[in-house]
Structures are given as structure tokens and as C-alpha cells.
Amino acid sequence: MADKKAGAGDTVVIKKYANRRLYNTATSAYVTLEDLARMVREGTEFVVFDAKSNDDLTRQILTQIIFEEESRGEALLPVQFLRQLIGFYGGQMQGVLPSYLEMSLDSFSRQQEQMRGQFSKAFGATPGAGILDEAVKRNMALFTDAMKMWPGFNALTPGGPAAGAAPPPQAAPAADPLDEMRRQMDEMRSQLDKLSKGG
């Protein structure tokens, strides 16, 4: 039902109607959020438009899929991470955070693919769930360490400075805040590269 008729690499258009039903224009069939979640896992690109206004609803639908997955016990996002994420809405770093998260998840995905490839070469099969679980835990720890390098996340990370505590002394602010932000982004990229290479 979620498969598309269009050629590989094409983006499937999903239309959302007033009755909340989702229509896959590639298969000419109605689909559910579960079908769309399966499409994401299979690597099928899609966009969601309101059938009447033609507004792009893709972000809203993807967020809804995450909510559904989390509510049925498939919890992936730690509570502390969700709190931190909410804290960034409306803040100065809101414009920078999406790029940083995207870069971090890309790095995480590349590590997983490399590891699967190494196991396939060594054992001729995909590694067992237990081994993958350990790898995921290791990568999440690396991700958390990387997040601590970002000043805003460090303040909200367990073990970081307590809320209301006096902030640690900081160096004098840079003459240009934008240059300082660029410097921090470069530093984070460098740290992520080191972490992804295991050192």
C-alpha cells in the first residue's frame, strides 16, 4: 500500500483531506501514519500537502508520526532531550540548532552504516540485536558528549550546571557574535569528526 509507482528517487506526493485522510498520489490509495512511517524507514521520500490550500504539511505529519511512535511504547527520545529541545524554541540558537542536529544525526547514521558493512564483511551477516544495541548506546553517549560542547545544551545536561546556579566565569564576548557562533560550529564539527573516528 505504501509502495510507489513512480521511479526510484522520485518524491511521492501525499494529500491530506479535511477528513484527515491521507492519499498517496503515486499508488492512488489512502494511507495511514503507519504506512508513512514505513515509507520513511524504507527510504521513500514524500511530501504532504493540504488538498484544499496546498500548504506544505510535511513537518507536521512527520512530527505526528514521532508522537504516535512514542505513545505506543516505541520511546526513542529521552525526556531530558525533549525538555532541552523545547527550551530552545524562541531562543537565540533556534536558527542554528536544526543544522547542528541534522549534522549530528548524519554522522550517527554514517557510523551505523560503516559498522554494518564491517560486520557483513567479517561475518557475512547483519550483526545480532545485542551487538547493535551496544553500538547504539555507544553512539548515543558520543552524541550526548557532543551536545555538551554546545553551551545551551551543557547547561541543561544532567551533571551540568544546576538550574539557578551561578554560571561559570566566561571569557569576554567576541567582538562579533556571528563570528563567535561560526567558531563554535567549526569547533563542534571538528569534535564530531574526532568522535565519529573513535578518537
Describe this structure in words.
By secondary structure, this protein is an alpha+beta fold. It has seven helices and four strands, in the order βββαβαααααα.
Identify the notable features of this structure and list them briefly:
single chain; 199 residues; alpha+beta; four-stranded mixed sheet; 7 helices; 53% helix; globular; disordered N terminus
Strand content: 5-15%
- Biggest β-sheet: strands ordered side by side in the sheet: 3-2-1-4
Radius of gyration: 21 Å
The 3D shape can be described as globular
* Unreliable parts: 1-8, 155-164
Query: How many DSSP E strands?
Result: 4
Q: What profile does the largest beta sheet have?
A: 4 strands, mixed
SS content category: alpha+beta
Count of alpha and pi helical runs: 7
SSE inventory with pairings:
Layout: E1 12-16, E2 22-24, E3 29-31, H1 33-41, E4 46-50, H2 58-71, H3 79-88, H4 97-123, H5 129-148, H6 151-156, H7 177-196
Parallel strand pairs: 1-4
Antiparallel strand pairs: 1-2, 2-3
Helix pairs in contact: 1-2, 4-5, 4-7
